[in-house]
Structure formats: structure tokens, C-alpha cells
Amino acid sequence: MSRHTPDLPPELLPLAEMPLFKRLAARFFGHGLTRLRAQHRASWLHGQADGFRSGHTAGVDYGYKEGKLEGIEEGRQVLLIRDSRSTEHPAPGVDDLLFDDWRLPLSAEVKKRMKADVARLLPAHAQPSAAQWKMIFSDTPSTSVIAGAGAGKSTTLVMRILLLTHYLGFELDSLTVVTFTRESRKDFINKLIELFALWGRTVSAKDARDLVRTFHSRILPMVRSLPGFERLQAFENLSTRPQQGDDSADSNPFDLRINDVQRQQLNACYHGLYQRDERFRELITPLSRHALQLKELERDHPDVQKRMAVTELAAKRDEELCDAVEDLWFRAGAWPIKGIEPNRQTFDINGSTFHCHGYIPTLDAWVVLGFDPRENPQVSRPNAKLTVRAEWAVKRTLFQAFCRKSLIWLDSYESSKRVLASLAGDASAGPGFDYKVKGELGSAPLLDCFVAAASFIENLGLDVPDAVGRMSFAKDDPDRFFFEALSRYWRALEDHLLDQSPPIMTYNRMFALFSEHSPQNFKLLSDGMLRPLSHLMIDEFQDVSPQIVSWIRASLREIRSRGPAMHVGRGAQRSSLLCVGDDWQSIYGWRGSSPKYFMEFNKEFASPATTRVMLSDNYRSHQHIIDAAEHIVRAAPAISGKKAKACGDAKELFAVNVHDRDDEGLAARLMEHYRKGDSILMLYRKSSDKLLIEQHISPVVNVDSSLPYEARRLKQLTYHSAKGLQADAVFLLGDCQHLTSSPYKNQVYRMAGLGKDGETDAYDCAQKDEILRLAYVGITRAVKHCYWYVDGQDASAANMPKASDRVPQNKAFFLDQRGEKKQP
């Protein structure tokens, strides 16, 4: 090993360590330089070597120190980075949006061109406002349009369709406009055809009908596209009339009346279930006993107090009254009844003796025959001061207050036939008795009650047996048996309907098949079946139910999941949702609808971007009408910032007149407006009120009904049916009052997530708000005049809120004349 530093470069090694050849050359060359005194060889070599050694040592020392410090710092940074890392391993977030993040391809040039065309083709009064243009030109995937009464939303919606198809090239079959009723659909179709014609575009009636739909007419073809369901019929559309395509699906979704064809199916299912299901038969027995039994009256009820005074007199004539009533039943062929022993029995009523007509051993109940309403009400016993009907009414009241035996009161010959069938075990005719669920305003045939309750539960997006299993009732509450029977019956009915040829299904069942609970079913649908829902526009959105909302969300989610391939080669790409509504006009909560989905639109329909439009201009009513209606409804929760402004040319403002119920005064005012040539809406809360008022306005009714429908100036409708209509003068007959509390609806409302947290009576609270909205709808039908006739205080509903409680005394837009003598 060399004794010299091994780190010296070769050119500086001592000569002894150089290769021989280099060593000889260096010596010879160095010797020459030394002789010439050009260098001193030994000094140069040793100086270079010493310099290198000292420089190398200093460099190594400096480099080591600097490198070490840098290395430690770098190492420290690595350690800090490692120490700061999270020890968790979170998964990526879930993209639960219903839409892609896209925008409608709207250029400034397109907007300018459409505005110019609108200015050229439409009259000045039909030019859109700034807010309406904002709705037409919304470019976000979702759009929420708050449109108050008379805001011109339908025309604006048609112009939105014009933009998409005429200016942006969207195909009509990529769009769906949803309206709620057959009437509103027909009106919208006409507006669409007329407006497109101004742009030189011909839209056939068929294409317009395919575009403008009800929810029902859109879900029906979806289910019919499934194998085996091509000829499926909707239960709600069953009738004696032949169905014509999907137009049959345009029936009123809020009409619960059962027709004869539907009842045949209900009865057939009942008969089969009653024969094979022992538990079902057990449940029917307490329901029939409760339903048929005479309902009690409190002894302090005004009718009881009034008729107690004639108890003794009524008892003296009771046996003769029994004879007279029995004679009427004999002549009608309705007595005796098989299964009822015709044995009279005496009862002690308030210290006096009365009689019944028979006894039912199977129910352990006594029977009293009533006065059939079809008999002449003037029929009397010989020498009697009162009619048989009046004597019978006194007896009935006394039995309701003082008889505590199990007693069935047969009110009519028709009811006796149903009881006869029930007692004979003939379930083919149905249960044979009416029932009243707590919270409902009146009784109805048991199977009708089943349909109504099941429809309400399913409209809330719930399954009937599951919901029933989560309910609770007092042990002695007959509704406990009702809902257990409903659970069994409803599942049996769905199976029974599917077994028919062709198969039958309720609309609620159809929507449930394509809800968020059944996303796998969408895989059975073609792109062509889903494509019309790509760009969905919904009118009256405040009236949607949870069931419908679930179907909408599931459909939009499926369309997004299929991606761009679904739209290849088409002008319309991706998907969008535009909803128009007014939460102040949400009036179908009693059927399971809720304004929640419109009020919380952004939360319920998750979107990358949403446009919110407020249409505040009112083109129908003058400011007093608007202010009066808004004053009533403002006590209900609502979307903030709403305040309508009259945009008409009214020269005079008329206050909304509020009167005590006065049918003659109402008739006089109504006929005066008719003579002046005004259009008139007569809105009522109860059908019995319509019959009463028609007696007073018969001259107008007779004249008007002889005219062609389009020329008629008088329409008589319920408050609910009047939505979307208007008239110069509106007459409101009856208050808007929440009269009952519904235990079962409160329970299922909570199950559906409606109402506030911890609110045990969520449905009842929602109804107290809805009566204010119903009054708002009624008042805002008026263009110029509105007259509101309300009944006096009803003792049975004294503590229940009513809309007229909100009428102020010191506002110019209301004129409260209650308690004053009326002048027509």
C-alpha cells in the first residue's frame, strides 16, 4: 500500500509512484525546466501536494459539516411530513346529484334572436316581464319558479318549450310537461299549438298530447312496456266506458269516488278473503257491530235538551209510531229481514217505556227501523200533530242519549239490504255496512274507507302493511281492527287485480314499482321509454306527493346513470327539471300532497346549480283582491319574499266583502252581476250548500245552462275545483275550517318524514295551514269583486280554527259586514 495519501490525483503523485515511462518523461522535462531556472521541481511537486492535502482536508471538513446539516434538515422535513399524515383512509365522497354539471347551450345571439321574434309576433300586453325571461332562459340543470296566482305561468312555460325546440333544436320527444288535471292539460295543449303556429311551426294534436301529460298518463306506458303488462289497466280508470289509449289516465287524481265496475272488483276480493282468512272474518265482526250501532249523543247536546221535555209524550205514542214505521217497511218489501228476529222489546228511556222492532242473535244487538229518506216527509199518523219523520227524529235523539244497550238503527231500506247480505254471510256483495274512521268527516261503505286510507298511506310513499305494523291504537279503539283488516285486504286486492285478464294495477302501485325503493326495475326500461323524462317541466308542483317525488328522483337518477350514450345523435342532451308552483296554493294535503318538496326544492332535488325565479306580477286581480288573499294566508309557513303586485288596468279597487250566511242576499247580488254581463264563479265547501243556493238563483241557472258551454257565464264549483279559473265576480259560500283530528294520519305523516321534529299531530297542524291556503285560492279567482258568506259559529267546532278568523277590521282591502243587516 502506498505511504502517500491515496486521495491525491494521479498527476500529483510523487514520481516514485508514477509509471516508469511517465516517471522518465517527467524527470527529463523537469530537469530541463530546472536548468532553465523555469521551476524548482521539488518545490512545485511538494507544494502542489501539500496544497491539495490542506485544501482537501478543509474541503472535506466544510463539506461534511454543511452536508450533514443539510441532510439532517432534509431528514427532519421527511419526518415531519410523515408524522403529519392522517392515519385514516377515508373513501371518496358519493356524488348523489340528480344531474350532470352542465349548462343549457344558450348564446347571447340566441337570446337576442328570440326576444326580437317575440317582440315582432306577440302583442304588447303579451310581452314577457324580466322575471318571465329569467324563467325562459334558465340554463341550469334545475329551476324553481315561484309563481303566484295570475302570474301568467302557463304562457311562460309554453315559451320555454319554444326556446328548447325551435331555437336550441331539442326534440319534442325528449320533453314532458306535467299538469294535474284533464282540464288544465287541454288548456295547455291549445296554448302550445297556437303559440307554435305563430312561429310557423305546426304541432299536431297527437304530438301535443304526447308532450303534455298528467303524471298518471306518463307512468302507465312505462309499466305497459314491461313483458306481460302490455294490456295493463289502471284500477282508477275502470269504467263501463271503453278506454281510449292513454287519455284514460287523465282522470282527476283527487277523485276517490268508486264506480260500479271498481266495486265489483273490490267485492269479489272481499268475498274470497272472507271465505279463506279466518282472522279477517274475526276482524270484520267488531267493525260491523260498531258501524251499525246507534251513535251516542252527549246528554247536554242542544237536541237532547230540547227533546227531553217531550219524552213522556213520545213514549205514549211510541207503539203506534212503531206500527206506522213497520207498515212503511212492509209496503217497501224491506221487512221482515232474514237474520233479524221480529220481536219487539221494551226499553226504559229516561223513566219512560219505548219499543224496538227486532233482535239480531249473531251480533247480540236490538234493531229499530227508521224513516227512509225516500218516503214522503209529510206522512203522518191519523190525528197526529207531528209527521212520522218528526216523531221518529225525537225518538232517535232520546235513544242516542239514554239507551246504553247494543242497538242498531236502520236508516233506510237500502241499508237493510246490505245488513241482510252481511247477516246471511253473503260476502259477495261486500261487507254490507258503512264505517267512519276517526278524523274523517263522514262514514262510507267499509271498502271505500279501505281504498281511501290505503291511497293516503301510499301517496305518502309508504307500504300499507308496513305502515299499519308501525301504528298504535287504544285497546278498545275499533280503528285498531280496521287497520289490521285493511292490511290483509289491501295485499289481497293487489294480488286479485293482477290475476285479472288483462291485469289491473293501482296507479300508486305503478309509481312504487319505479320509485327510489325499486331502482332495479328501471333496467327493464328502454332508452326510448325514459327519454321523454329527460327534460321535465312540472306545473302546480306544490301539489306533488312523496310517492310522485320518489318516482321523479328515481327517473332522473337513472337517466343520469345511463350517460351520454342515451342521447347520441340527438339535439337534446343530458337532463333537466323545471318546476313551477305556488306554495300558497297547496290545498291537497288531505290526499297526501305536501308543499314541502317545493319549499325545500334545492334540498329535495340535489343539483350542481339551480335557478330560482319569483314571478310576482299578477295579471288577473286588482291590488285589493291580492292584498286580502295574502293577508289571510300569511299566517301559514311559506317561501320568503313573496308579495304580488297587480299589473292589470283596474281603474277602481273593490274590497273583499265578508257577510254572515245569507242565501237570499247572495242570490240578489249574483243575479245583479249576471245582468251586468259579468262572468261569475259560485264556490262552495259542501254539496248541500250548492243545492240550497240553487233554489234562490234558479232563474240564472236556467238561462245560463241553456247556452253553449263556452258561452256560459256562471260556474258552480267546489273551492278545490276552481284552481286555475277566474271570473269578474266570485261568490264564496262557506268558511274554510279544519273540523277534525285524525289519529292515523298524524301517525303516517310522521312516518313519511313530514311535519316538524317532535310534532305529534303533524297532519292536523298541516291542515290548519291548508285552510288558509284554500281561502287564498278562493279569493284570488276574482278579477274585480269577491263576496264571502260564512256561517255562524258552530258549537261543535268552536275551538277549531277557521280562515275567516284572519279577516282584519281596519284594512281597506276587507269590508267585514258580519253582524250587520244586509242590503242586496
Pick out its properties.
23 strands, 29 helices, Rossmann fold, 11% strand, alpha/beta, six-stranded parallel beta sheet, disordered N terminus, 824 residues, 5 domains
Which regions are unreliable across 5 or more consecutive residues at pLDDT < 50?
1-6, 40-45
Could you state the CATH homologous superfamily of the largest domain?
P-loop containing nucleotide triphosphate hydrolases
Shape: globular
What strand order characterises the main sheet?
3-2-13-14-1-15
Overall number of structural domains: 5
Determine the number of helices (DSSP H or I, runs of at least 4 residues). Answer: 29
Overall average residue pLDDT: 87
Helix content: 40-55%
Strand fraction? 5-15%
CATH class wording of the largest domain: Alpha Beta
Sheet with the most strands, sense and barrel status: 6 strands, parallel
- What is the CATH topology classification name of the largest domain? Rossmann fold
Structural class: alpha/beta
Total beta strands = 23
Structure description:
The protein has five domains: 10-68, no CATH class; 113-159 and 166-213 and 536-562 and 576-581, P-loop containing nucleotide triphosphate hydrolases (Rossmann fold, 3-Layer(aba) Sandwich), CATH 3.40.50.300; 256-293 and 410-500, no CATH class; 310-405, no CATH class; 623-816, P-loop containing nucleotide triphosphate hydrolases (Rossmann fold, 3-Layer(aba) Sandwich), CATH 3.40.50. It is 44% helix and 11% strand. It has 29 helices and 23 strands. The strands form seven sheets. It has a six-stranded parallel sheet with strand order 3-2-13-14-1-15. It has a six-stranded parallel sheet with strand order 20-19-21-22-18-23. Helix 24 links the parallel strand 16 and strand 17. Helix 11 (302-308) crosses helix 14, helix 16 (446-459) crosses helix 18 and helix 24 (623-633) runs antiparallel to helix 29. The longest helix is centred in the first third of the chain and has 44 residues, at 41-84. The radius of gyration is 42 Å and the shape is globular. Residues 1-6 and 40-45 have low confidence and may be disordered.
